[in-house]
Amino acid sequence: MAERPDRSLRATKTLVSNQLSRLRSVHPALAVGGLIVWLFGVLAAYYVVHKPFDLIQLRALGQVALDVALWLGVLIIAVGSGLRLVNLMKHSLSSIEQVLFGLGVGGAVLGYAVMGLGWVGLLSSVWVALLGASLLGWQIARPQPLHVAWRTLRLVLPRPRRRLEWLLAGVAMFCLALGWVWALAPPYAFDALVYHLRQVRLYLAAHSLFIAIDSAYAGFPGLLQMLFAFTQALGGDSAPQLLHFTFLPATILGAAALGRRLWHLELTWPIAALLTTVPTVSLVATWPYVDVALMFYTLLFFYALVLWLQDTRWQWLVLAAILCGLAMEIKYTALWYPLAAAGLMLVRLRRDGWRSTWLRWACLSGVAALVAAPWYLRNWVLTGNPIYPYVWGGPAWDAGRTAWWDRVGSGLATQPWRLLIAPWEMTIFGVEGRAGYQATLGPLLLALLPAILAEWRRLNHEEKRGLGWIALFGGTLYAIWLWGVARSALLMQSRLLLPIFPLVGLAAALALHRLPALDTRALSISWMFRVAIALVLALHVFTVVSNFIRDHPFAPLLGSEARNAYVGRRVGTAYTAVMQSISELPESAKILFLWEPRTYHCQRVCLPDSLYDNLVYWVRQYGEMSHLIRALSTQGVTHVLLNRAIFEAAVQQGSDPISSEALNVLAELQAHHLESIYDDGVAYVLYRLRQ
Predict the structure, then answer these.
(1) Mean pLDDT of the chain
(2) Nearest to 132 by CA among 60, 211, 210, 73
(3) Domain presence at residue 187
């Protein structure tokens, strides 16, 4: 009997021991799980009370993330598809050359695809999203070209060799980094609000490229605008600026690759510093304009012509013709590019003869015209003029507007000596945003270029030949620009010369590289230039940092400032305030703008005064007041917005030919037919048209 309790006791101990061993095996997992739950519980409870950001900041960060994602998506599509197309040509290009030509061709392919949607009336968010998803999916499914591009870009930047190169590299990368942040900020640049982004918004609203013509800029080539439309259709705001900014580092890499192709020299960092320290180039790159993109395509066009000159294979000439056509799809000024190509083709005149040279130039021009045809055909269908509004006019155009815009005889033809010193004047006296040359170019290019003449006898044959090609191509475009400056003061813009700046920068970089050849025992000219360049770079960095701190672009990106408030801070709160007042008008409102060309932020139907001549044009068209009022009513105009500040300045300065008849009509309109409903007391007056 005594053995049973012992057995029961042993069984109980065994059971307890088994349970304890099970608990010991479970305990570590429970402890770890409990610790994780505790960690996240503490963090969640803390940040519910101590919120790191509010809904406004979250929305701002979300917009930044969306813009960056759209920018990356466009680059992936462009580089991937472009590399595939370039590789089909089986050219003997280096890896970086393939990537750069691929970016140019692939970006254009995406632009043409969006343009195609606009042609058939499908330019909507849904169709753009389907297009983007299919193209992006294709690149992700077959990522080999993207791998090639990634490996190439990781290895393309050389290690600086001397202290000056380290300084050049540091300043260039610093400026590019700040520029990228600036490009993320909300768009505010003048021409963007007038037509670059404004036209995109109209296309998306109509789902079509065929919209009513209400601006002198409505026919301007739109290939880059199609890339802007791709991002804005998907909710992008600053993505167009990021896309345009991308062409600046791409142009630097392209010019450096051209230096290696021409002279077997590594000039990446001098070129990078010389271009990024041109204030207008760095500034315009952060805006949703087309100028830096045109720089890139102009460089590629010249690059392809150089490849043809080096081995004369017809494939290079076809590639050059395609790139010429793409440049024509970006800006009207590229219509002169076949003339610049003719100058280079004449280099081979002795060997090829007149007939072959003429046929090659005709083929290049013909292929370029075919590539550029989609947009110019759109203009012809819409306005009857492929280059609206130039030469043949069109809707909302007459001889008076042609004279108003051209201002023939207002240029420097009456002061021909100033044409000879134009490089000096536009460098020394040109200031971004001010009358005259309207650009700040920095001193380095002008300071370095004459060194080429001093070094000429010490240059080798390849260097002289490459500089000659640059002089022929760039000199032709410069001569065309100079002709425009002589003809009209409105063409006296240094920004129209930006397409040749990569070539000028390449020549200046070669001059800097060869400066030690001018040194003597008594004087080191290269040391003097190094000291001067270091001083210029230091001053440029100081200016850039000062502007960055004053502009504070992080404020709208982080949500501490509303995006609209940032725009108001840059263009004036009077503008954003009157746009807010217009948005409160009935949806049926239609506003005629007088002396105000910016309508991008207008939430109603707004007719811009793109040439500051709406009143003069309407008076010229309709004459008597009764006819003018009837025309306004017939066209559905319900309100009139007057930018009083610009109007009064134009009258006082007498810069615009505003007739006394037009002034009398405006006075009568204000007295008898317009009722003021908003007046900020400084700039804007918004009127209701009395019925």
Answers:
(1) 92
(2) 73
(3) yes
Same domain? For 281 and 330 the reply is yes
The domain in which residue 13 lies consists of 1-52
**Element counts in the chain: helices (H) and strands (E):** 31, 5
Instruction: Please report whether residue 617 resides in a domain.
Output: yes
pLDDT bin (cut points 50, 70, 90) of residue 608 is: very high
Q: Please give the structure tokens belonging to residue 128.
A: 């753009």
Instruction: List, for residues 126-179, the tens digit of each pLDDT value.
Output: 999 999 999 999 999 988 888 889 999 888 899 998 999 999 999 999 999 999
Same domain, 452 and 361: yes
Q: How many domains does the chain have?
A: 3
* Whether residue 524 sits in one domain with residue 628: no
Q: Is residue 562 part of a domain?
A: no
Contact 445, 292 (CB under 8 A): no
User: Which residue, among 489, 493, 494, has the nearest Cα to 404 in the 3D structure?
Assistant: 489
**CA–CA separation, 358 vs 363, rounded Å?**
9
Summarised one tens digit per residue, pLDDT across range 195-222 is: 999 999 999 999 999 999 999 999 999 9
Residue 146's identity, in one-letter code, is L
- DSSP character string of 29-71: HHHHHHHHHHHHHHHHHHHHHS-SS-HHHHHHHHHHHHHHHHH
Three-class SS of residue 651?
helix
CA distance 371 to 384: 20
Reduce the secondary structure of 323-334 to three states and give it as a string.
HHHHHHCCCHHH
Are the beta carbons of 628 and 619 closer than 8 angstroms?
yes
Residues facing residue 639 across a β-bridge = 591, 688
What would the two tokens of residue 322 be? Answer: 């395609």
